[in-house]
Amino acid sequence: MANTILIELWTDLAASKLAWTLVGVGGFGPSTDATLRSYGIPRDEATQTNGTSQAQHIAATNCPVVVANFNYAFPPYSLTLFAFAPTAPQLVALPADQQPVGQFIFQLQGQPRGALRD
């Protein structure tokens, strides 16, 4: 799972208000930023009125993520895609009682296997 990326796609079909929602990535340790892509009313209107090319395309930005569950406001009539990269693996020394005399043993720890199969 070293190269695993968790992707969540959200839709908001409400016509007139932001939809605040708890986004959860439990069992997965995300890095500090998620890539966020969205398409909604402003992009659609730019396409219909022949706006600039940049205004018509899917918006891409970074979203800071510091915990596995966070709130996000989804605009009306929008599609939002989060792409979460995993945290970097850590090099951890085994406890002293598990070390052979005169040696150090380290483990490379990343995402737990099967964390996303709940």
What does this structure look like?
The chain has 118 residues and is mainly beta. It has one domain: Immunoglobulin-like (Sandwich). 10% of the residues lie in helices and 44% in strands. It is built from 2 helices and 8 strands. The chain has helices at residues 41-48, 53-56; strands at residues 6-12, 19-24, 30-39, 59-64, 69-74, 78-86, 90-93, 106-109. The strands form 3 sheets. A 4-stranded antiparallel β-sheet has the order 1-6-3-4. A two-stranded antiparallel ribbon has the order 2-5. The longest helix is centred in the middle third of the chain and has 8 residues, at 41-48. The protein is elongated and about 75 Å long. The two termini are 15 Å apart.
List key phrases describing it:
118 residues; Immunoglobulin-like; two-stranded antiparallel ribbon; elongated; disordered C terminus
Fold topology:
Layout: E1 6-12, E2 19-24, E3 30-39, H1 41-48, H2 53-56, E4 59-64, E5 69-74, E6 78-86, E7 90-93, E8 106-109
Antiparallel strand pairs: 1-6, 2-5, 3-4, 3-6, 7-8
